[in-house]
């Protein structure tokens, strides 16, 4: 008989809580559930904050949050799930950085907390109360952790970098328009 320890129970709680929050957050984007704006509204918002094309950006963020959250909650493909969620939250954090740290001021506190927890779960693993454990860790190998986090970090750096470039161009265009008046 297998006895689960405090670590397994703690990881289960972290996975269920973080995964559940991420799934709900992504469902707002994808389906408009829980007071969200769906792909159309989220796409318009994404465009307004520099992520283009907006609908594709909303879809990618929604899938990373919903899918990554669901997989984290299940404890399945934990390195990829945690990395995907962490990447989405890094992109969200980039939007909120100008507002400072605290969420009450529109800061990045919330997104950073979710992203760091997801990355921590990717590194730590899901524990024994998980589908990864039940399936013999076939999609939770040690080499997958740096591969998933590295690939996600590279992709996120490119996406956030392109956003920064778009925002600079937009700002320069607005300044030129002011001088022309």
Description:
Helix 1 crosses helix 2 (38-48), helix 2 crosses helix 3 (54-74) and helix 3 (54-74) packs across helix 4 (78-96). By secondary structure, the protein is mainly alpha-helical. The model has no long low-confidence stretch (mean pLDDT 95). Helices cover 74% and strands 0% of the residues. It has one domain. This is DoxX family protein. Belongs to the DoxX family. It comes from Streptomyces phaeoluteigriseus.
Brief characterization of the structure:
This protein is mainly alpha-helical and 181 residues long. The chain has seven helices and no strands.
Throw out a few tags for this protein.
single chain; 7 helices; membrane; 181 residues; 74% helix; transmembrane
Task: Give the arrangement of secondary structure elements.
Elements: H1 6-31, H2 38-48, H3 54-74, H4 78-96, H5 109-124, H6 131-134, H7 144-180
Helix pairs in contact: 1-2, 1-3, 1-5, 2-3, 3-4, 4-5, 4-7
Q: What are the secondary-structure elements, in order, as H or E?
A: HHHHHHH
Total of domains: 1
Query: Assembly type of the shown chains?
Result: single chain
- Rg value: 18 Å
Number of contiguous helices: 7
What structural category arises from helix and sheet content? mainly alpha
Helix content: over 70%
The low-pLDDT segments are none
Instruction: State the shape.
Output: elongated
Distance between the ends: 78 Å
Which range does the strand content fall in? under 5%
